[in-house]
Amino acid sequence: MLDIKEISAEQTYEIRHKVLRPNQTLDECQFPGDNDQGTFHLGAYQGDKLISIASFYRESHPDITGSVQYRLRGMATLEDYRKEKAGGSLLLRAEDRLRKQNADSWWCNAREGVAGYYKKLGLRECGDVFDLPPIGPHIVMFKMLT
To answer: What kind and span of H or E run contains 145?
Structure first.
């Protein structure tokens, strides 16, 4: 059974590094805004093991409607736990919290290879594929909460 908890930015760094940025340093897994007021980080635990993370920042995208927007960054699940539905559970919990904070949308720069996953969770594409060196091709995706 998964347990979803709010975690610190520092608790996300190891999984960000292992899953998302293995060719970069651990320091490069710290994102601007990680400790800003309004930013929150969620973790999915199986027992006492952190297996999945997601971070949300109060940030607007110019091509997405909504007066209170949040950006998802650094969502990752350890490879051995990807069938546990931890990512979807994190996003459902985040959406509940965002609605309580009167957010009307959230968005992310999704890696092109996982765009189908986000579509299954109700996100829509916005714009064209673009490259984020040294990570690779991405596309902006969003979900309206209202």
So the answer is: none
Cα(129)–Cα(1) distance, integer angstroms? 36
pLDDT in tens, 72-92: 999 999 999 999 999 999 999
Q: Which helix (H) or strand (E) holds 2?
A: strand 2-7
SS3 letters for 30-74?
CCCCCCCCCCEEEEEEECCEEEEEEEEEECCCCCCCCCCEEEEEE
Question: Coil, strand or helix: which one is 136?
Answer: strand
**Three-class secondary structure of residue 112 per DSSP:** helix
Enumerate the β-bridge partners of residue 56.
40, 72
Q: What residues contact residue 80 under an 8 Å CB cut-off, 6+ apart?
A: none
Give phi and psi for 104, each to the nearest 5. Answer: -110, -10
DSSP three-state, residue 16: helix
Amino acid at 136: G
Task: Categorize the per-residue pLDDT at 146 as very low, low, confident or very high, splitting at 50, 70 and 90.
Answer: confident
Instruction: Give every CB contact of residue 31 below 8 A, 6+ residues apart in sequence.
Output: 9, 55, 57, 73, 74
pLDDT number for residue 18: 96
